[in-house]
Amino acid sequence: SLYVSEYFSQSAQKLSFYSWYGNAKVFHFHVPEDTVLLRWLLQASRGKEPECTSMEVTVHFRCGAPPVINPLGTQFPANATVHPSYNISITLSSAVQNTTFVNVTSPAAGDWFIAAHLPEAAGRIEVKGFSTPCTYMFQADMFVLRLADMPVLEPGVAMPQTVISPAKPLHVKVFVPKYTARMWFELRSCVTSEQKACSVRVVLGSITLPQSFQKIITCTGNVNCSLGLDSLPWEKWLQIMVESLGTANASVSMEMLTSFTDCRPGSTSSFLNFSLNQSQAGSGPGSTGTAGSPTQSTGTALRNASEQRSFCLQNQPVVREDLDVVSVRYRLLNGPAVPVYSISPTLLLLNLKTGMDSGGSLVVNLQLNKTSLSQANATVVACLSAASPVLSLNTTQKCSTAFFQGYPLSVSTSSAEAMVIVLYPQTDDWFLSLQLICTKGQGECNTAEAKVTIIAYLTPCFNDCGPYGQCSLLRRHGYLYAGCSCKAGWSGWSCTDDTKAQSVGAQNLATLLLTLSNLMFLPAIAVAVYRYYLVEASVYTYTMFFSTFYHACDQPGVAVMCIMDYDTLQYCDFLGSVVSIWVTILCMSRVKKILKYVLFVLGTLLIAMSLQLDRRGVWNMMGPCLFALVIMIAAWVYHGVKRRHCYPSSWKRWVFYLLPGITLAFIAISVYAFMETNENYYYTHSIWHVLVAGSVAFLLPPRDKHKKPWAWSQKLTCRYQICQNDREELYAVT
């Protein structure tokens, strides 16, 4: 046999601590046909900084769609059936890099996905630039070994084959045509080169993670081995592997035979009939209306039990309507209500084979029309499965195919509605099988009919993540998938887990604290106006206004009010905060007015530019603060040298104003930089507002000595006034 090895690699990604699916780094690979061995090379590494500690990287695998993971142990939405993902852990301790191999024998061809992440996020809000977080990197490479000339079994033709040794298993494949109801596999005439009883193991199917449904039979002796499989994947190659369990030097010869039992489909309508009906009705090609009911002759034929027995299923044509990215609606040509019978199942095909459909959620809803069901004790059983339909619901009542565990549903007069949500459905054709079942026997159901309304659609996020979540479209190279980012303490795949959710009262309290705490700027504004610092008072008013309404718009829950675009409010809030610090320190420096106002304008322009470049960078705040402090210290030194004593010279100014203001400012910076978390943000940030506003009120210098307090009666009364010199003095003010 000719084996061909191939290598696929993707660039490394920086890992993140997990809080929602967007923190998981996804890798997308495509496994070619006839692959007999798949090997993953997983490389995890960390930086050499002292902040780097031992860390555990969790890696999830899945075939056909991104892995559905739940590292936080939260709840999934109701009616969502989830299979646990296959995962491994890679530990980074003393070693800077860890390399791990994962082997998969006889993997399924098609899309394979890997998702990697770090443990749960601590929830602390880190100011960008205050600390250097450790960098953890992850890279996944894929090696495949495929058989270039894999033998093909022809149905009904016995094919002799030989297993050379136990170390070299035999690989063959057979194509499963459409509408196959059953396959029969037989292994016969098995002998060894030593003329002894052979012992072989036959594995049918490929490995699909997280669940694998390979069928394994062990053949011992000279007897024939056989296996029958129902509901095989249609229009796909089925791999068969034969391993010798004998001695190392003995070869095994045998014959393999496969045969298929086909299924004759019946259809209530066709796309051609639909087009003709639409044309006769005068509907244009872009019409969104549904087709009419089946013709009377077709409906009569469906109600004829003998006619139904000649078909193993009844097809219902379905139109796939693409709405947006990862958004599809399925429209039934004969209307949303389909007839369901007991003799043969009703089958709907949901096409999810574009390669871009596996990043959303497939939702199927069934609604039974109670008046259409004549048998009160009858139940409509349904099964949603991938790759192949279930055609024997009336006998086995099991929602499983040969290599896939389906999603069961049922509706009856007592429970007329059922729903199933498939999170990240695998790329394939999906089938919905429906059949009518009677508890007292199928005989009484032969003439019965049930009308079931079917609503099926693919959506990026189920229920759009609810009122406490935001649906985000994520991208890895050209592949798109969606995830929910929850807020207000809600969690879960679709933000439906309210275990740690904030109550409405807590949300209102958080909004009031974050907004009303900005009113602490009113004393600072009053002090600035009283001391004739009108420009500074205008800046504080601007900051108070936009900080109040930014935090009113930034709330995660229901207590939200946005007077303008969120991004505009955020930018104005950040700009006002930094400019307030800038003008306060420059005001304390007591430089000449003309120089002070030039620095006000020039600094504001530079701060506006830097915030546009990086809004959350720590140097956007620290840079202007340090530069203003340098100017203030230089001015104070100049005043002290000129006056030949410390500046400011009054001990009362230091004890009652400067030291309290500086203390409040340092406490505010400590709270802002080191104490804020996602859980305590609403009161720690409120404390930050109070402390900063209070420090401004303490740090503002007294008015100029020649300035008199505001005398409103004198300002409003017309009288002669004595002119006075308005020259600014640069000596100490006490």
UniProtKB/TrEMBL annotation:
<keyword id="KW-0472">Membrane</keyword>
<feature type="transmembrane region" description="Helical">
    <location>
        <begin position="594"/>
        <end position="613"/>
    </location>
</feature>
<comment type="similarity">
    <text>Belongs to the TMEM8 family.</text>
</comment>
<feature type="compositionally biased region" description="Low complexity">
    <location>
        <begin position="290"/>
        <end position="300"/>
    </location>
</feature>
<dbReference type="Pfam" id="PF12036">
    <property type="entry name" value="DUF3522"/>
</dbReference>
<feature type="transmembrane region" description="Helical">
    <location>
        <begin position="619"/>
        <end position="638"/>
    </location>
</feature>
<dbReference type="GO" id="GO:0005886">
    <property type="term" value="C:plasma membrane"/>
</dbReference>
<keyword id="KW-1003">Cell membrane</keyword>
<feature type="disulfide bond">
    <location>
        <begin position="486"/>
        <end position="495"/>
    </location>
</feature>
<feature type="domain" description="EGF-like">
    <location>
        <begin position="457"/>
        <end position="496"/>
    </location>
</feature>
<dbReference type="InterPro" id="IPR021910">
    <property type="entry name" value="NGX6/PGAP6/MYMK"/>
</dbReference>
<keyword id="KW-1015">Disulfide bond</keyword>
<feature type="transmembrane region" description="Helical">
    <location>
        <begin position="681"/>
        <end position="700"/>
    </location>
</feature>
<dbReference type="InterPro" id="IPR000742">
    <property type="entry name" value="EGF"/>
</dbReference>
<keyword id="KW-0812">Transmembrane</keyword>
<protein>
    <submittedName>
        <fullName>TMM8A factor</fullName>
    </submittedName>
</protein>
<feature type="transmembrane region" description="Helical">
    <location>
        <begin position="509"/>
        <end position="533"/>
    </location>
</feature>
<feature type="transmembrane region" description="Helical">
    <location>
        <begin position="654"/>
        <end position="675"/>
    </location>
</feature>
<keyword id="KW-1133">Transmembrane helix</keyword>
<feature type="disulfide bond">
    <location>
        <begin position="461"/>
        <end position="471"/>
    </location>
</feature>
<feature type="region of interest" description="Disordered">
    <location>
        <begin position="279"/>
        <end position="300"/>
    </location>
</feature>
<keyword id="KW-0245">EGF-like domain</keyword>
